[in-house]
RIBULOSE-phosphate 3-epimerase
Amino acid sequence: APPAIIAPSILSADFGALGKACSDTIGQGADWLHVDIMDGHFVPNMTFGAPVVTMIRPHVEKPAESLGKGTFDCHMMIAEPKKWVKDFKKAGCDLYCFHYEAAINSTAAEEPAATSDKKTSPKELVRYIHEQGLRAGVAIKPKTPVDVLYELLDSGVKEETPDMVLVMTVEPGFGGQKFMPDMMPKVQALRSRYPELNIEVDGGLSEKTIDTAADAGANVIVAGSAVFGAKDPSEVIAKLREAVEK
Ligand code: DX5
Ligand code: ZN
């Protein structure tokens, strides 16, 4: 499996001192920053947009190599993922992770794709993200089965192949929710089919749940409340990494 990557979610950081929170967490051993973007449509909550990413970007050194330390992993919980790719590239995002459910219908996330006249296929969106010079991720919500991703991952066309898959382990929208172990079969299925794929898990990850996720085959670990709520975040980051590497 690919190396362990620990990506603290700044959703649980102090938004009043976000720049410092970002540089601190990298100093405490984090590899990436997981940046949760919510639009109040795709999920019932809002965070911030590209202008805030622009302001926090200088607080963290840009990755020396693709997906290296300092990567801004932007988790786009938004109804119109294609619309914001260029703005997030400009803001300093490195990895643009859109939701499959939003891409199959970029105007109304919950409507079946067939009824939409503005259909964006996930494949086209991955290609578009790559064309803008970003790495591309695809996220699935708990109710979305994993096999919808196989066509995309099996295409054999590099430009259309995602660099990461995010398996949500809570319903997206809020930090501090309970980890859903019943998502692990999705992770296992992906890991057995794709030994080299970056598989990210997000939601409810902590020292208590990390072994379950690591055993299933996840290598990119998002943790919000567990890291930012800790007395000693560096210890939590180290323990998450150990669990994945063991
Ligand atoms: C939830 C977000 C997560 C969230 C995780 O919609 O995608 O990244 O911050 O928070 P914890 O780790 O507290 O569950
Ligand atoms: Zn997230």
Residues 233-245 form the longest helix (13 residues). Confidence is low (pLDDT under 50) at residues 108-117. The radius of gyration is 16 Å.
